[in-house]
Design brief:
The protein is an all-alpha fold. The protein is elongated, with a radius of gyration of 19 Å. It starts with 7 loop residues before the first helix and ends in a 14-residue tail after the last helix. The chain has two domains: 66 residues; 57 residues, no CATH class. It is built from four helices and no strands. The protein is 57% helix and 0% strand.
């Protein structure tokens, strides 16, 4: 889905649809497992589903060779990072630069992620 994106509006639409669909996925899966498996086997089935999700995520990471990886963590930072802070906090400019680079072709924003002057690359 994301490969077909050519502008920020399309990106927002795909992310919204994906988020809407993912929200119903796990409850539906666990309800189906409860219907299909006897109580003595349900915890194993749920564990296999969770393991499959994690293995798929690991596989995705291995296949994403052209996407810059940013490890942005600090004590107390939750799943949403710093986006709840004014102007997106310390991660806001990174997200805006990435979108400007990928969706608008902004070469100045790209320098944060690529090239000899890369500011977020390993070793800098």
């Amino acid at each position: 889905m994301h490969a077909s994106v050519t502008n920020a509006s399309q990106f927002a639409l795909w992310r919204a649809l994906l988020g809407f669909a993912e929200g119903a996925n796990f409850p539906a899966v666990f309800k189906a497992l409860a219907a299909w498996f006897p109580p003595s086997q349900r915890s194993l089935a749920r564990g296999l589903v969770n393991a499959g999700v994690n293995l798929a995520a690991k596989d995705d990471f291995a296949r994403l060779g052209q996407v810059p990886v940013l490890f942005a963590w600090r004590e107390g930072m939750g799943h949403t990072g710093t986006y709840r802070e004014p102007n997106g906090g310390i991660l806001g400019p990174v997200a805006v630069s990435y979108l400007n680079w990928r969706l608008k072709g902004d070469r100045l924003a790209a320098r944060m992620f690529t090239g000899p002057d890369c500011t977020l690359c390993l070793g800098h």
